[in-house]
Automatic annotation (TrEMBL), chain B:
SUPFAM superfamilies: Thiamin diphosphate-binding fold (THDP-binding). It comes from Bradyrhizobium cytisi. The keyword Zinc-finger does not apply. Keywords: Decarboxylase, Lyase, Pyruvate. This is Phosphonopyruvate decarboxylase.
Amino acid sequence: MSMSVRSQLDRRAAVAALLNSRKDTLVVSGLGSPTYDLHSVGDHDGNFYLWGAMGGAALIALGLAQAQPGKRVLALTGDGEQLMGLGGIATIGVARPHNLDIVVIDNQHFGETGMQASHTGRGVDLTAIATACGFAVTGTVRTIEEVQRLAAKITEPAEGPRLFVIKVLAENPPRSLPSRDAVFIKNRFRAHLGFAAA
Amino acid sequence: MHSPQPNPDSHSSDDWPSELFRVLKAADVRQMSYVPDAGHSQLIRMFSADRDVTTNVLTTEEEGIAIAAGAWLGGQRSVLLMQSSGVGNCINMLSLSAIGRFPLLMLVTMRGEWAEFNPWQVPMSRATQPSLEAIGLRVMRAETAEDLVETVESAASLAYEADQQIAVLIGQRLIGKKKW
């Protein structure tokens, strides 16, 4: 798994393979491409899409996982978004939820702002950070076959939080835009879990 | 430096942390997150000992804004404890609470405004209320124990029943001079 090995994985194909058997997994997506990727697989009442709050995706997922211990929760985010929330990896490691996975779609760039290189292409390893913070399982995948195996794994019980990096090509596929109305998405999400709007 | 001992001179009516705990439990708060402050130490201990409440210690305060939103998505009420220096860390993450109209209750112990010995606390102290209001929060303030308990009770209703984003500022005069 040398850093010099460039992934040839298409991010949309990877996210589709990751989520086409999601069952009742609840998903929070980080701003930018992961939000478009999640929507491109098909809109879902159990999705909460971020258009801001950079660094917050995995922590929203933590609060959700703690409130819904019987459901699996997935934070689907990007390398830039997770880098802004590095401290949150320590917080999640200490909280040790058994039903939370973080999947970082890692193109090693800030894709939304002009494809500037990020830290993950320059030696920073989010899986090593998560391991050091006490995550139960971490891993890096680079092929569609590995993503398919990961898709099955994230629907299964775990001993603690897990973080997986999917290395993908640095490219911006056509945007697939979910609603930007956070109140609507929030209320739809809560209704999906049986909670009435105020 | 962060003395966990309650003030031995205080009498029972000054036991506002226990009263706040009672009020927040009555409001069905199920998650609590915090960056420690000496003024919150008793409340932190009480929540941490409560098996019906999930407690998260944070590396930086904005994490708690995100956790509170996630808790609400999952049907639970969350409260966030911090000191005024942490408010500055929260500002962009508060976009989430503001634009999503997520219930938010944060209890902020003030530094830098009353018998403060540390000048580094003063700038953020001055910026606390204006910056919270600029991002769209409603700020409530209490200077006495009685007023604080009533204020938090009211703030909890506004947050959890009326989907408001509330910061309750706890005056440094109420917490008392930091002991060295």
